[in-house]
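Table S7 (text form). Paired inputs.
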Amino acid sequence: MLSRVVVPEILDHLAADDPEAIRSRRDLRRINFFMGNERWFCREIQRFTEQASRGITEIGAGDGALCCQLAEIFPKAPIVAYDLAPKPKTLGSRVLWNEGNLLEMPAPNGGILIANLLVHHFQGEELAALGKWIQGSEVILLNEPDRSHFPHLLGRLAHPFINRVTRHDMLVSIRAGFREEEMATLLGLDDGGWQLRETSSWRGARRMIAWRT
C-alpha cells in the first residue's frame, strides 16, 4: 500500500452489452451507494452554485446515473459527460455526451468538473496530461479509492455478493488509489493557484475539492 500499482481493470475491456459487464455495473451502483459517492457530489456541488450555473462536466460518466441526478438538481445548468463507452440509451438529450478518449478532445472551460472513481486509472505522463486537461475548470471534485488496508478488507468482505469482474477490479482500484495529498501533487494542483480540501471516509473514499483562488 506504500506505492501505487496501476493494473488494467477487466470492465474497461468488456463490451457494454457483455453480461458480466452489465452485472459489474450493477455491483458498482451498489458500491457507490454504500460509499455515499453520488450523495457527496450532489451535496458539495451545491456549495458552488454560481460555478455550477456555467456548466457541470463529468469525466468517466459510465452509465450516466450521476449526470441524471445533477440534471434534476440543476435544471438550468449545461451538463456534459465524457466516457469511452457510447451514450447510454436511457440518457436523454439533457446531457451532452462525448464518446472517446477525453485527452484527445477539447477540455472544458469554466464551471465545475467532477470525476468519480476515474483518476486512479491514470499514471505517469497520462496522469500529468489529465492534470493539465482539467485545469480549465473553476472547481474540481474528485472521488477516488483510498489506498489503505481497511478499504482492502472491506473489498474482500464484499466478495460473496459481487461477480468476478467486480472482485478483481475493486482490489485493483484500491491498490491504484491515493493516499493523503497525492492527488493534488500528481495532478499539479498544488502550485498555489488552487484552494484545496481533502478528506477520507472509513468506507474507502478519498475525496478532494479544488477551487481557484
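Next pair, protein 2 of 2.
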Amino acid sequence: MSTLRGRIGLALLVFGLTTLITMGGAVWVSLRDLHRDAAAGALAELTIPYAVRAGQQIPLEAFRRGGAGERPASEAIERFRQSQEGRRASGQFIAFVQAAQDEIDAAGISVMLIGDGQVVVRSPVSGRIETMASVPDVRLPLVGGEVVTGQTQMDGLGQVLYAATPVRAPRSDRVMPSLVLVREDDSAAMATADLLAALTLAGLVLLVIGVPLALGLSRSVTRPLHRLAAASDAVASGKLPDALPATGPLEVAEAVAAFNAMAAEVGATREAQRQLLADLRHDLRTPLTVIGGFSQALRDGTASGEVAVRAADAISEEAGRLGRMLDDLDHLTMPGGSGPPVRLETIDSLDAANSAVERFRGEAERRGQMLALADEARSTPLTADRDVLDRILGNIIANALAHAPSPGGHVVIEVERSSHGITLAVRDDGPGIPPAALAHVFDRFYRADPSRTSRGSGLGLAIVRDLAVALGGEAFAENTGSGARVGVTLPASTPVRDARSPAS
C-alpha cells in the first residue's frame, strides 16, 4: 500500500481480523463446552428412564455377586452370556432395545449394557449376544441411582459422549450391569457452525461500521495533509496561502501549526524585503536628484569656482551614498536578512542638518524655493547611523520641497535639544496637512490627496518613521498654522535595539 489511506485501511482490516480470530477461538471453546454439556445433560436425562425399563426386562438372578459391595466379575459376565438364562435375558434386553429403536434413532444414541468394563449388549443389535471389546475408559457408577457422564473413544463410534447408570429391578436393591447411552461427540462441529454464523454476522457489522470508520479516519489525516501539500506548492511558487485550519489528529495538527508559523515567517520576510526594495528605490531618487542638479549646474556653467567645488563634493558624496545603498542590498541575500545593519557613531546633528541643506540646495534653487537652517539651530552631539540620519533628513526635506509653494516657498530645518532627546524637524509654508490625514501620513503608500498629479509614491514618510524607530526614536507630523512641520525625535544616546533596522 503506497497511500496513507490504503495503509490505514489495511491496518484496520488486520486488526479486525486478528480480533475476530482471537475472540472466535475463545468463543469456539466456550461453545464446544456448552454443546458438550448440553448433550451430556440430555443423555443423563434419558439414562434413568431407560435403565428402569431395562431392569423390568432382565432377570436379576442371572447376576450373582461374589460378596457384599462387589461388582459382577468378568467370569460371571461370561457365564451369564453362555447360560440359557443369560441368553434369555439378552433376548429380553434386545427386545427392549428393538421396541425403543425408533426413539433411540430419533435421539441419535446407542444403548449398551456394560458389566465389569465389558459390553454385554449394544445397539443396534444383531439379535444375538456378541463378544465386544472392553471399554476401560468408561467410568461406571458404583451405587444405584447415580448417573455418570463423560467422553471416550469407542471402536466403531469414534469420539463419543456417554451417560451410565446401574440397572435396578423393581422393588429390589440388587444392582445389575450399567446401562450406558452413547452418542457421537459433535460438539466441535456444532460450535464451528455456530461460530461461522456469528463470524458472518460480525463480518457484516465490521463492513458496515469499519469501512466508514476507516474512510473517516483516513480522511481526517489525508485531508489536512493534502491541504498542507497544496499550500506548500503555493509557497514554493511565491504565493502565501491563508492560515490552514489545524484539524485532524494531534500530530497532523502540530504539523499544520508549524507550517502556518513557517508561512507567516516567510510572508513577513518577503514583505520586509519588498518594503526594503521599495524604500531603496524611493531613496535612490534623492541622490539622483542631487547629482542631476549639480551636474546640470556644472554643465551649463552656473556653478563655478567655490560653488563648482561644492557641487563636485556633493556629487561625490551622493555617489558614495548610492554605493552604500547598493551594499545594503547584499543583506537581502543573507539567511534571515531583512534590512541593512545599523552602524552607530557619534554625529553632530547640526553638521548633519547643514549637509542635508547643501545636498538639496540645488534642487531648491531650481524650484525657486529657499532652503536654510533655522537661526536657533545649535550643534548637538547625537549617537546614530549617519546614512540612516541622512535618509531621514533627505526624505523630510524632499517632502517639504514638494509641498512648499514653487516658486517662492520657504523650507527651514530645525535642530533643537529637549528633555525627550534631539529633535530634527523640517518646517514649510505650504498648505499644511489635512486634519484627517495627520494620523496616516506615516502609513506606507498613503497620500493625503490620491488624485493629485504628484509623482510621490507614499513611501517617504513611512521610511522616516521606520528609520526613526530603528534608531530608538519616533516620528511626528503637525500643522503650524502657516504650513506643516515634520520631523523625528531621537535619543541623544541611541541604544542598540537590534542588529538590523526594520524593513526600510
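The mean pLDDT is 75.
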